Amino acid sequence: MTTRTNTNLDKFKQAISEHALEEGFDVVGFTRPNNIGRAGQHLKDFLDRGQHGTMAWLEDRASERAHPNKLWPDARSVIALGVNYGPDIDPLAVLSENNRAAISVYASRKDYHDVIKKRLKTVARWIHQSTDADVKVFIDTAPLMEKPLSAAAGLGWQGKHTNLVSREFGSWLFLGFILTTLELPPDEAHTDRCGDCQKCLDICPTRAFPSPYQLDARRCISYLTIEYKGHIPEEFREPMGNRIYGCDDCLAVCPWNKFAQQGKMAALAPRDEITAPYLAQLARLDDTAFRKLFTGTPIKRTGRDRFVRNVMIAIGNSGNPDLLTEVEPRLSDPSAVVRAMAVWAFGKLAPIDVIQKKKQKACAEESDQAVLDEWQVLDR
After folding, report:
1. Residue 5, pLDDT score
2. Known catalytic residue: 322?
């Protein structure tokens, strides 16, 4: 393969793209490992400001993220591949249904890591068999700056919300990568087409964007509901609404979604039972039921306790006192993070006399200080 001419390499690029499309990918682009511009410096600034919150894994391998060849020195080309997962409904519509839960579009289906990695390996194996070039596949869990690499490969551009935006698929692309020792001609990087629009910034319920192209993850509902293991700070609880796993607001509002299409890969079709499920049903989940319901989905990795913690907040925001019957059992839940948010929800929905009656006994039996603190502020 090392003797191939540029013309032959261009033809082989086309063959790779055709093979990837046959495997179910919707878009393919090519770049070099060092074509990420100032993304490494932006990552350093993000980490220096502490805006990554408790996601220590971002800091631990920051050098590799900023310089992909530190991850694999022999890599000469990056093949960026995208799978469209566009929804067939408006993700913002469920936010007005106070008895139901809003779950991020990507999570209401089979875990994309499992689905896409198999297809990446198939394409990579074909490249190796065709050229003897070495290949490695990566999807999400590796320390690669996926969005800058995808933009460099021409798949789209990073919008003001820092996510990738595609002219063809809007906000809805799962990303995967093949790194190879084969030196393929790079594609042109995509230009930024956000213009003066800042709808993604304006819609954010928790004001997680200090400025365009800058995210403070500590204020992001996706971070708070998925990554953050502690007690949700009070200032974010009401803005969370009924969002219990992730948040699609900044993605869904993007005007480029007018060109988006519904995802076609059957293996990534949304599951009906976890598309806008009822909060009451989710509040009753123990660990076994949680694992059974969410097996094979991204939600499972968060664990039952954090998930039900989020459900309690959504119930507290529902304004529906009928859901008190789902809150009360959680006041004595084995998990302190669940109990604390159950107390908060109880305070939102229960009459003051019921709160006072419950509070004295609960405080006498409670050993966790954070839960006690939630009880203490209820009747003030």
Report:
1. 61
2. no
Q: What percent of the chain has pLDDT over 90?
A: 95
- From the list 48, 132, 140, 286, the catalytic residue is 140
Give the pLDDT confidence score for residue 380 in this predicted structure.
56
Structure tokens at 339: 């109990």
Q: How confident is the model at residue 224 (pLDDT cuts 50, 70, 90)?
A: very high
d(CA 20, CA 119): 8
Mean of per-residue pLDDT scores for the chain? 95
With contact defined as beta carbons under 8 Å apart, do 365 and 372 qualify? no
Dihedral angle sign, alpha carbons of residues 144, 149, 153, 154: positive
pLDDT at 3: 45
Q: Is the pLDDT of residue 1 over 50?
A: no
Domain boundaries, the chain: 6-277, 278-380
Q: What is the pTM of this model?
A: 0.95
